Structure formats: structure tokens, C-alpha cells
Amino acid sequence: MQICRAIARDPSGFVTPGSTCSSGALHRLPSPRLWLVLILELVINRTAAQKLADRGIGEQDVREVISNGPLVVPNPLPRVRGSLVAIGVTKSARFLALILQPDEDSAIRWHVMTGWDASPRQIDAFHRRG
Question: Does the structure show a pLDDT above 90 at 23?
């Protein structure tokens, strides 16, 4: 079981204030622009594992990013409603960006779709998070 206390910014496009929605467990924090994303289960299927491996990213790297408390923002190009981008760092100080999609049946289960080395802009956003 994976527990993540990720901070999400401006998810207003897919959730109303103070609600838990089908795209995952999102809880409003004291700041009107910050939300808590609860990830208790992380799924990496074979296709996603291969996409990650092609970029030199292992399952352990993904789990480290999630467990280290990533910055989570709405995916600007979602294929699925509620898709998020998790930006974070591994124990070896590698910054990654991961695409997470919500599970249809569980508000706490998220699917990793792909990932890549975070861009300088994404790294800056991670460092500036609230």
C-alpha cells in the first residue's frame, strides 16, 4: 500500500471545493488553491512499465517519486478526465514527471501511464510549490 500526501494546484477543472470526486480522493487544504491528493494504491501495467523502461525509469523510481510527496497538477493534455501530472524527485535526486490516471472504481487507486525526466520548468514548479 502506497501513501502519498501530494499537493495539487488548481484542480478546479474536475472537482468542486471540498469534495471527493471519481477522479480520486482530493481534499481541500486551507489555501484556496491547494488540494491534497490521496494515493493509497499505484498501478503500473506492462505497457506503462515498458514506456518507463524505455526512458530508463524503473518501478522503484516511480514509487520513490510518489512516496516523496510530489507536486501534482492537472494534466494539460488529458486523455482521461481527472488525469494528473506528478512532478517529484527520486532518492538519487532524479526529477521525474509522471502521468497518473484515476481508477474508475476506486478513489484512492491511480494508474501510472508514462513518465519522463522533468523539464527545467517542471523542476522550478516543484521547488516553488506551496
Answer: no
